[in-house]
Amino acid sequence: MSLQQGKFILSAKRSLVAGMVTSMFALAAHAGLLEDDEARRAILELRQKSDLSAQRLSDEVKKSTDDNAAFRRSLLDLSNQIEMLRIDLAKQRGQDEQLARTVSELQRQQKDMALGVEERMKKFEPSKVLVDGQEFIAAPAEVRDFDAALASLRQGEFAAAQIAFINFDKRYPNSGYKPSVLFWLGNAQYALRNYKDAIVNFKALLSVAPAHLRASEAALSIANCQVELKDGKGARKTFEDILKVYPQSEAAGVAKTRLAQLK
């Protein structure tokens, strides 16, 4: 019971007591006029009315107190439900955030895997290459083997370069590298003083790609091999052909000088 409710009950009781006292004094004043039985009945009736009023008031107060307690319990239950909902919502939000992080991580892994697969596939997929002014499609293995053979030649490993270029031509007979392979193979053989084989490969270049960027150089190399083989007549003929076929080339200037030396 609250303090306000206690004050209310105390005030009500005081009012009842005061009323009873007043009534009793009134009865006493007229006691002489009433018989004793009638006075006692009047007092009993008044007391019963007073007790009944007090009981009603107590019942009302008790009912009000019970209602207040029930209301407070309802508020407490509602507050607990709200708190549980808040906790559930926080858990759900946390689960959603975790799910979002998981999805993001999976997407990142998927992207990394796709990039990894793409990079690995590139190692096996043909690609465009540009060599000696010629653009063509070559497999990764072709690029690797040609670069390795050329590296041997540039390092002065002429025997190894000769073998590498011969094997390349056998392995990739239709490769776009073929004119360049024939040119550099001829140079490796020239360095090894294998002049006859060098002439064969230089002529093969002129046959398969007469307009190749290195065609004039190949023709000049043929003449040089002929000079080394003491074939002056053949060398003179080759120098003259260079002046006719490749008049604007650097090889033509060298051929003109060498031709004058042969006379």
What is the topology?
Blueprint: H1 3-29, H2 36-122, E1 127-131, E2 134-138, H3 140-154, H4 158-171, H5 178-191, H6 195-208, H7 215-228, H8 232-245, H9 250-262
Antiparallel strand pairs: 1-2
Please give the radius of gyration in angstroms: 60 Å
Strand content is under 5%
The domain tally reads 2
Which CATH first-tier class of the largest domain would you pick?
Mainly Alpha
Please tell me the CATH architecture of the largest domain by its name: Alpha Horseshoe
Q: What class would the helix/strand composition place it in? A: mainly alpha
Work out the helix count: 9
> What do we call the CATH homologous superfamily of the largest domain?
Tetratricopeptide repeat domain
Q: Main sheet: which strands, in order across?
A: 1-2
The gist of it:
The protein is mostly helical and 263 residues long. The chain is built from nine helices and two strands; from the N terminus they run H-H-E-E-H-H-H-H-H-H-H.
Please describe what this structure looks like.
By secondary structure, the chain is mainly alpha-helical. The chain has two domains: 40-123; 127-262, Serine Threonine Protein Phosphatase 5, Tetratricopeptide repeat. Helices cover 81% and strands 4% of the residues. The chain has helices at 3-29, 36-122, 140-154, 158-171, 178-191, 195-208, 215-228, 232-245, 250-262, and strands at residues 127-131, 134-138. A two-stranded antiparallel ribbon has the order 1-2. Helix 4 (158-171) runs antiparallel to helix 5, helix 5 runs parallel beside helix 7 (215-228) and helix 7 runs antiparallel to helix 8. It is rod-shaped and about 185 Å long.
